[in-house]
């Protein structure tokens, strides 16, 4: 490897490691990705967990959750990957693969659903030329993104990015970021002692109580030939509709909006985690039933 490539690799690893360490707000935001992957880790079979650990970069120190924001950290260095983080729609709150899964210049399959299918297939195929570490990190990250309703929002406002709002009269933000970051950080601050593992535990508590009946269905549409990512995008597109209500450009969002969004955010993180685990279990331990195994 040439010096420049080496330097680039070192800088990338450092940026990714810093991104993984710092709980500070960024693109879901880092907390959302961390929690989605943390929940997935808890549902992996022993076999899948060992395979995942074997693929993780060294700086993740054996923790999938620590590496799940990597695709955001390298988005600039890999500009082609940008459109794989989302799947916006014309505004009908429905997702249609044929219509909506393309890049900004119309490149077919270049959306979050295409990305999930791509990296699932790559990991399943031992002769795939793609880097398996990168495939794992992209897949794990995109399972988080696809569950964030504003990642399947309207094309016209870039999934809420151009809708500027204030959060509790103090923070200038936008509707996309409200869902990525602000709701989670306000919840952490108010209810979870600013501690991500406390919030993860609260979500896990619901997984073993509140949601334990429906949970078996969450991963159930997985078939040998698809990842059901279409369904996850359809759900998010549908959830994006009410998320736009009461959040016009220039508005101030506070308790009313926060308490409407929080249960949705928490459930989507849970679903993303459970589904990621089901996909990884299938890839790495050939598990063929759709039931989730706790470990
Ligand atoms: C599939 O993965 C490869 C390798 O990272 C990438 O070049 C290609 O653009 C990806 N395509 C999709 C639809 O994700
Ligand atoms: C695979 O990707 C990771 C992360 O970008 C990188 O550190 C590693 O060197 C790559 N492996 C190969 C064999 O290219
Ligand atoms: C935000 O400003 C509005 C209008 O001035 C006020 O009614 C509301 O109580 C403020 N909210 C907070 C959380 O300070
Ligand atoms: C637990 O479930 C209840 C009922 O669906 C919901 O209101 C609450 O937000 C959930 N809490 C967490 C931490 O997921
Ligand atoms: Zn992303």
UniProtKB/TrEMBL annotation:
Residues 1-19 form the signal peptide. This is Aspergillus nuclease S1. Gene3D superfamilies: P1 Nuclease. InterPro entries: PLipase_C/P1_nuclease_dom_sf, S1/P1nuclease. Keywords: Disulfide bond, Endonuclease, Glycoprotein, Hydrolase, Metal-binding, Nuclease, Signal. Its EC number is 3.1.30.1. It catalyses: Endonucleolytic cleavage to 5'-phosphomononucleotide and 5'-phosphooligonucleotide end-products. GO terms for biological process: DNA catabolic process. It comes from Hordeum vulgare subsp. vulgare (Domesticated barley). GO terms for molecular function: metal ion binding; nucleic acid binding; RNA endonuclease activity; single-stranded DNA endodeoxyribonuclease activity. Pfam families: S1-P1_nuclease (PF02265). The keyword Iron does not apply. Belongs to the nuclease type I family. It comes from the Eukaryota. The keyword rRNA-binding does not apply. SUPFAM superfamilies: Phospholipase C/P1 nuclease.
């Amino acid at each position: 490897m040439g010096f420049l490539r080496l330097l680039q690799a070192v800088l990338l690893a450092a940026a990714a490691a810093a991104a993984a360490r710092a709980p500070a707000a960024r693109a879901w935001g880092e907390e959302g990705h961390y929690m989605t992957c943390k929940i997935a880790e808890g549902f992996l079979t022993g076999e899948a967990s060992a395979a995942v650990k074997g693929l993780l970069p060294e700086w993740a120190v054996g923790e999938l959750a620590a590496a799940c924001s990597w695709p955001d950290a390298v988005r600039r260095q890999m500009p082609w990957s940008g459109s794989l983080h989302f799947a916006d729609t014309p505004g009908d709150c429905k997702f249609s693969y044929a219509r909506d899964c393309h890049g900004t210049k119309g490149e077919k399959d270049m959306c979050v659903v295409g990305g999930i299918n791509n990296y699932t297939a790559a990991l399943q195929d031992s002769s795939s030329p793609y880097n398996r570490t990168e495939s794992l990190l992209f897949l794990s990250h995109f399972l988080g993104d696809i569950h964030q309703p504003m990642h399947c929002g309207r094309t016209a406002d870039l999934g809420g990015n151009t809708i500027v709002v204030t959060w509790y009269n103090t923070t200038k933000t936008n509707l996309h970021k409200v869902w990525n970051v602000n709701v989670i950080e306000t919840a952490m601050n108010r209810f979870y002692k600013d501690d991500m593992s406390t919030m993860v535990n609260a979500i896990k508590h619901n997984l073993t109580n509140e949601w334990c009946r429906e949970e078996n269905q969450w991963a159930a549409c997985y078939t040998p030939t698809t990842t059901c990512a279409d369904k996850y995008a359809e759900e998010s597109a549908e959830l994006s509709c009410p998320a736009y209500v009461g959040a016009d450009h220039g508005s101030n969002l506070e308790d009313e909006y926060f308490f409407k969004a929080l249960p949705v955010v928490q459930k989507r993180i849970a679903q993303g985690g459970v589904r990621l685990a089901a996909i990884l279990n299938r890839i790495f331990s050939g598990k063929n039933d759709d039931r989730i195994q706790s470990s």
